[in-house]
Amino acid sequence: MSFARVESLQHEIHEHYPALRAIRRRKALERSALWAEIGGEVRRILEGVERGDRAPVLPPATAPGGRALRAVAWNIQRGARLDDLRRAVAEEPFAGADLLLLSEVDVGLGRSGNRNVARELAEALGMSYAFGVSYLALTDDFGDDAGGLENTLALSGAAILSRHPIRRVENVDLPELRDKFHSSEKRLGKKRALLAEIALPDGPLAVAACHLDSNASPAQRARQLGAVLDSVDRSGVTRALVGGDFNTCTYDISSTLALARDILHKLLVIGLRTTIDQYMTPEKRSERPLFELLRTRDFVIEGFNDRGSGTYFYDLTDPYILDRARKLVGRALTRFLLRLLRPWGGCVPARLDWFAGRNVAPVAAAVERPPTAADGRPLSDHSAIIVDVAV
What we know:
Blueprint: E1 5-7, H1 17-22, H2 26-31, H3 33-46, E2 49-53, E3 68-78, H4 82-89, E4 99-107, H5 117-125, E5 128-137, E6 155-162, E7 166-173, E8 187-189, E9 192-200, E10 203-211, H6 218-235, E11 240-245, H7 256-270, H8 272-277, H9 288-296, E12 312-315, H10 319-329, H11 331-340, E13 347-350, E14 353-358, E15 361-368, E16 384-390
Parallel strand pairs: 3-4, 10-11
Antiparallel strand pairs: 1-2, 2-5, 3-16, 4-6, 5-6, 5-8, 7-9, 9-10, 11-14, 12-13, 15-16
Helix pairs in contact: 4-5, 6-9, 10-11
């Protein structure tokens, strides 16, 4: 079944990627003749939304005793192994979902084969979709593009897939915490969230897919979430569901110094056991600003989340995470952390991914460990979170 309508984000900026990569700082970029030529087009793309709409085809009821809306939120880690991912979402629990809220979604990036991940997943599931851009990626992070394939559209962002009609869509501007043009993954753009108004049979539902900054403090993550909740309020829709990777890691990663200080405080004052226990209950201490914000804005997490299961694992046996730790806090402190985590095999669970609802009632919640690819590796470093809500 083809899309009845597609609004795409095609552009011709790719010929300028080598010149953009050669510029070291954003201020130098903004003063350049190149920016005078292409800046307007870059801004248009970075604020853009791609959509594909099709007639709704609804699955059978997903909750005992009546119809429930099933929502899945998942950080799909770029969608790099897209053929395996397409096969995975064709099976339960993904195939029975009414809504998918996806973060770390690539469109036209070499690391994911220059494919349109959002559109292909929507095609596989027979759903409508909206994709909102956060970044135009000029280089890749550690190990992302081993094949060295040059990017085409080079877009990264969030997507919402729906079996119900998608009405208004907004690519929500979040507070910028760090200049990503000067980072290990050189990018133009900033964090954004995607807000969509979903037309349900009994009225509209505001749905927001968000991916808050990892390189931030808990207070900064709360500020970003506040911008998401503001956009929900502006929509005028009373029922709302917000989900995604909130990055509630319990650490202040706003700078290398802040992180080192936070780690030492946790080890010397809070204690290792309490620190690790709080990875599963970040609302109790370290990430309190974010959860207090949800509460004051009448959003509920109770019942929307399976609290017994982690959605991410701090796994210092993983080469990517090990390399990232060394870059953030240095080799000496990383070796020290490895020794401390030996009783856990170097791997402990955490809750980074969440659903929060307002004026909707949760029926059931679950966590789905990431499916594996043909090579046996998990398709993402995050588990998917699932909630059924009464409609």
